[in-house]
Here is the input.
Amino acid sequence: MKEKYLSAPQVAKMLKISKEKVFLLAKHGLFPKPIHLHTGAQLWSEKAVKNWINMRFKT
Here is the structure.
């Protein structure tokens, strides 16, 4: 199965936070680091984001 990647706006929508907050969390090591493309785009692995959510909000 092919890995799916998410843009900052997609991640922000998923987490219900601003895209600036997504970058800030990643910068401070509180969220998975994005993958930097040669075009300048930054994408997050959907799997990594979902794993982070599951670990963060585990009950």
Notes: The two ends are 29 Å apart (CA to CA).
